[in-house]
Amino acid sequence: MSAGITRATPAHEHNDQKDGTPAGKVVRPRTQRMYIRRFLRGLIGLAWIIAVAVTAYEVGYKPLCVPSPERAYISATTVVVRSPIEWTDIDWRVKPGDVVMPDQPLAIVSNEKLDRTSLVALTTRVRKGEVQLAQTKKNRELFEQELVKCQKEWETFVETYIQRLEKGKVVAESQRTQSFAARDDALRRYRLLEDLARKNIASTDEFASAVAAAKVAEGKLAETEAEVGRFENDIAAAKKGVLSDRDAPIGLARVIELRLKASQAAVEQTAVEADLTADRRELESLERHLKNLEKQEVLAPTAGRVASVSNGSGLEPKGEALVQLLEANGIFVEALYKPRYAKFLKPGDQVTVKLAGGTINGVIRSVEQNMPASEAGLSDMMRDTSLDLLRVVIDLPPEVREARLIKQPAEIIP
């Protein structure tokens, strides 16, 4: 306030000192406006809190810890072990709940009601094939032996034939030489008588006789030369296997016939050997098959826990399911949650799992609606099949994948 100016004090600001209020204290009256302002401030604060909560819920803001499930236990994927043969009898070596190791016997299946008709027929066919093969080999050997003998006879015949031709050629050449000499003598006598005839010394008859003798000598020479040529041609043809002797075609035909029979016997032997080999393989396969059908051991393909065994009876087909095995390598935790926790559980999130042997960290594999016939329906004999729950699959580290843990309870630590 400025000096010299005095503010009038309202009547309500005067303290009558009756209520014990110190002198000079200003007391404001509680009006309706003040209450309204306070109510509005509180309402605004409450609206702000609600908006923050709604926004956090809509964006999936997670709580400080993973919620606890309704139920959690250790499960595993199922391996179905099937029968390798048809069987009528089975000798079980395990029962549901047993823990098995790889290659451990699960059962022995056998079949005493075998049809051996095919085996008998195939055995008979193989024996007949062996007899036929032996006969074919024998025929081939006989043909080859006869062929060798006939070939030698043929070669001897050809050599003898060529020798005979060469001797005939020698004789023909000798006769040709004699014909040359006779012709020369006849020509000399002809020329001499021709000169004498011109001088009228020789008679006409002597000259005519000389002319005739010269012509005969020329003809004889031509015949001997033709004979030598024929022998030369026959020798050349014989060396190439072409003989003009009347016995030659018969011997050659015999050789050709034996060669053809030996070749046919070789082809027949090859075919019989191929058929016999195929029949023997089929027989061995059938014998192995029948041996396996008689009795065969069924082994565990992997470590795990037996979930169930077959209760089949009578003649069961090959491939029939014998054992449902919970695989140790496929172990996981199955937790059942209420649907309202769906946004708090995401695949890939880490969770803490408490088992019988201690506490470990797992990773959420999947979050799905609980189904009665889910992938693990055969293995989870004790699982809750309610459709009002969420099924959360949690993968465990390899070091805790032991068959003894399957179906044991688990706990998710918040």
Structural overview:
The chain is α+β, with helices and mostly antiparallel strands. The chain starts with 31 loop residues before the first helix and ends with a strand. It has helices spanning 32-58, 117-198, 204-239, 248-294; strands spanning 71-82, 89-92, 99-100, 105-110, 295-299, 304-309, 321-337, 350-355, 358-369, 390-395, 411-413. Strands 1, 3, 6, 7, 8, 9, 10 and 11 form an 8-stranded antiparallel beta sheet that branches. It has 2 domains: 71-104 and 302-413, no CATH class; 119-276, Helix Hairpins. Helices cover 46% and strands 19% of the residues. The model is unreliable at 1-21, 59-64 and 373-382 (pLDDT under 50).
- The proportion of residues in beta strands is 15-25%
Alpha plus pi helix count: 4
Mean pLDDT figure: 76
Gyration radius from CA atoms, angstroms: 62 Å
Give me the count of strands.
11
Broad CATH class of the largest domain:
Mainly Alpha
Amount of helix:
40-55%
Straight-line N-to-C gap:
67 Å
CATH homologous superfamily (4th level) name of the largest domain: Helix Hairpins
As an assembly, this protein is single chain
CATH-derived architecture of the largest domain: Orthogonal Bundle
Structural class: alpha+beta
**Elements, N to C (H/E):** HEEEEHHHEEEEEEE
The number of domains: 2
Spans with pLDDT under 50 lasting ≥5 residues? 1-21, 59-64, 373-382
Main beta sheet, described?
Answer: 8 strands, antiparallel
What sort of overall outline do the alpha carbons produce when their principal axes are compared? elongated
Query: What name is given to the CATH topology of the largest domain?
Result: Helix Hairpins
